[in-house]
């Protein structure tokens, strides 16, 4: 039976009680944390930076799955990413829509140099075919099942076709990436993404903010 990776998104956490939220996730046996970085430019929201990340990685052993919803603007790719290359950062995702082709190749190379899993995200309006030149070099593809920028949105059902398409391309071409989803996960939609072949599930309010017993039950659903 397939086991799914689960990564709670702390974007929906109570920031004044973030330690309490992280302690609960740790007690529930969570291995991954999905860390959303927003710049109020690529998306209409502002979230965490390297400082909060270091506070988490210095006090917890979660593997960190960084999701960058940003534009580089005045920064080089290396300059922007360097502060995020911290202990326990396992995977970094950049949005395909935020980079030009040369930057994507640089991003792939930088991840390999730093022994990080390299991931590209696609927003709902982006076709899987646009990732074709890069799939062989990716460790992960993040399919946004909502529009990026804020939590609490409704799952977009057309995302299922993208998951299935990516898994078909992977099998046909012997690629090694995982397929991850982010957005709108609840008691109904987690089954849908599992049926379409997802490997890793990001969930915000479905997991974060729950009591320990409820949290363990929900994690078990997503994992199995």
From TrEMBL:
Keyword annotations of the record: Carbohydrate metabolism, Iron, Isomerase, Manganese, Metal-binding, Zinc
Cofactor: Fe(2+); Zn(2+); Mn(2+)
CDD domains: RPE (cd00429)
Keyword Manganese (UniProt): yes
Top-rank lineage group of the source organism: Bacteria
Keyword Flavoprotein: no
A GO MF term: racemase and epimerase activity, acting on carbohydrates and derivatives
Any one GO BP annotation for this protein: carbohydrate derivative metabolic process
Quaternary structure annotation from Swiss-Prot or TrEMBL: Homodimer.
PANTHER family, per the entry: RIBULOSE-5-PHOSPHATE-3-EPIMERASE
Name under which the protein is recorded: Ribulose-phosphate 3-epimerase
Species the sequence originates in: Spiroplasma clarkii
Classification of source organism: Bacteria, Bacillati, Mycoplasmatota, Mollicutes, Entomoplasmatales
């Amino acid at each position: 039976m397939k086991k799914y990776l689960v990564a709670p998104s702390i974007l929906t956490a109570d920031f004044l009680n973030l330690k309490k939220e992280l302690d609960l996730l740790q007690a529930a046996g969570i291995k991954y944390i999905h860390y959303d970085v927003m710049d109020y430019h690529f998306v209409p929201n502002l979230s965490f930076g390297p400082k909060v990340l270091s506070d988490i990685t210095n006090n917890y052993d979660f593997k960190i799955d960084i999701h960058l919803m940003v534009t580089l603007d005045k920064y080089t790719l290396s300059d922007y990413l360097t502060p995020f290359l911290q202990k326990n950062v396992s995977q970094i995702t950049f949005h395909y829509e935020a980079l030009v082709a040369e930057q994507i190749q640089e991003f792939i190379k930088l991840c390999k140099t730093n022994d990080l899993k390299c991931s590209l995200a696609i927003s709902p309006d982006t076709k899987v075919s646009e990732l074709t030149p890069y799939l062989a070099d990716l460790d992960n593809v993040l399919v946004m099942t909502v529009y990026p920028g804020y939590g609490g949105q409704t799952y977009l059902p057309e995302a299922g076709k993208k998951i299935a398409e990516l898994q078909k391309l992977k099998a046909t071409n012997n690629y090694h990436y995982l397929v991850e989803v982010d957005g709108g996960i609840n008691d109904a939609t987690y089954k849908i993404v599992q049926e379409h072949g997802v490997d890793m599930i990001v969930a915000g309010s479905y997991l974060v903010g729950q009591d320990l017993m409820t949290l363990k039950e929900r994690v078990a659903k997503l994992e199995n």
